[in-house]
Amino acid sequence: METETTNTLSRLRRHMSPSQILTIGFAAVILTGALLLHLPISSTSGELTPFLDCLFTSTSAVCVTGLVVVTTVAHWTIFGQAVILALIQIGGLGIMTMITLIMMAIGRRISLRDRLVIQASYNQEGISGMVKMVRRIVLTTVVVELIGAAILAVAFYVSRPMSVGWAIWSGIFHSISAFCNAGFDIVGPTNLVPYQTDVVVNITIILLIILGGIGFTVLAELAKVARNVERRSLRTRIRHLSLHSKIALSATGMLLLSGTVLFCLLEWNNPGTLGEMSPGNKVMAAAFQSTTLRTAGYNTIDQGALTEASQFISCLLMMVGGSPAGTAGGMKTVTFGVILVSMLSVFRGRDRLEAFNRTVPLDVLQKALSVALMIVSIIFVATILLCFTERGSEFEHSFLDLLFECSSATCTVGNSVGITPYLSNIGKIIIMCCMYLGRLGPVTVVVAINDRLRRNPRATAYPEERVIIG
């Protein structure tokens, strides 16, 4: 019986496309996580948690979002927290990465189909070196998370009274959650607000978020740059970075800096956020806010107290998100960069997309526009739906609050103005769909476009006809 079931699953898997395998795989992990969280052993009360809340939490963890309907540290036991942490790690690294790691551990051969799914999950151009890439990703993740956990454990133990065991667990939990850009915390209902002036915690979390969100492709290239320190000058090594890495690093730096400056300007005198802090802490909190909106979900200031202008800027930063082939969500920095390059090319009067002395193919712009439009469409539709479903909510909210919530969910950020626990059942389902589509959407859209282009390489070319723009 078991053999027949295994054979049936194998046949089904062979007939599924990589995007279908990813979609079903994520759904299966989410459902498994929800069932584990539904067990009495997972809740501190020892009673069954409503299944919808378990499903919401599992979706948020696997999609590395961080939105919660119950306080993680108060509601879930160590077992429940461990389940959430495992779901975060699986969601951050990718299901196929974890499966490949297990197959390598037991000595099984990685098939061509597996390599194609890995290629799809990390949006790589070719399938060569997929297994080697998985090894590098896992090794990088383990090293970075262990270093982050050690630093955070010491910082937590020194800054607030707690046992050594809880400090170690807190360090591990927050290090994995930060590197995977998940935003789950076990501090309390105010997230990391109690640590808003702790330099070590802030800087460590910021670096973990950036390292996880910059993308493993970029990290691999930066590692090469560091290794060649004696062979070439720094300028030469940077010049030899790929166009992908140059755009990702440039867009990341620009967004982090501009976000920090804007939050300082908009919130400097706001007593609900930065107003009561010293100038140095204000800059640090603004930098943390700018970083965490890149799909991390942590916060050291009250998101509900932000000015409307800051909320709108936050929505824009969340929509961009992190970089491809990483743990972050959103439309991605490279997508934003390609669209920006297209706009600048028009302003310069050029008929080609040029960046860093390279020409970007037109099909890349088509993919970028498709992903960006998909993200914006999901956010728009979800926000309108919540306007109807949350009319009777106990939480007093505005349209901008709902836009913030949907942007946070779709772009797998996890920041909230406080409405999440008060969502209606239909509202929770809408937000779950946003998280699921936001996590899988950009990848599946690009994979689908690539599949169609491969299947129709000689599609009929119709005569050109110009239309009026503007």
SSE inventory with pairings:
Layout: H1 2-14, H2 18-37, H3 51-62, H4 72-75, H5 78-93, H6 95-105, H7 112-121, H8 130-159, H9 164-179, H10 199-213, H11 216-227, H12 234-239, H13 243-267, H14 279-292, H15 308-320, H16 333-347, E1 353-355, E2 358-360, H17 362-389, H18 399-410, H19 425-455
Antiparallel strand pairs: 1-2
Helix pairs in contact: 2-3, 2-5, 2-7, 2-19, 3-5, 3-19, 5-9, 8-9, 8-10, 9-10, 10-14, 13-14, 13-15, 13-16, 15-18, 16-17, 17-18, 17-19, 18-19
Overview of the molecule:
There is one protein chain. The chain is an all-alpha fold. It is built from 19 helices and two strands. Strands 1-2 form a two-stranded antiparallel ribbon. Helix 5 packs parallel to helix 9, helix 13 packs antiparallel against helix 15 and helix 15 packs parallel to helix 18. The protein is globular.
Instruction: Summarize the amount of helix as a percent range.
Output: 55-70%
| Strand content range | under 5%
What radius of gyration results from the CA coordinates? 22 Å
**Oligomer status:** single chain
- Kindly state the number of beta strands: 2
Secondary-structure element sequence?
HHHHHHHHHHHHHHHHEEHHH
What is the typical, i.e. mean, pLDDT? 85
How would a crystallographer describe the biggest sheet?
Answer: 2 strands, antiparallel
User: What is the rounded distance between the termini?
Assistant: 64 Å
**Alpha-beta classification:** mainly alpha
**Low-confidence region ranges:** none
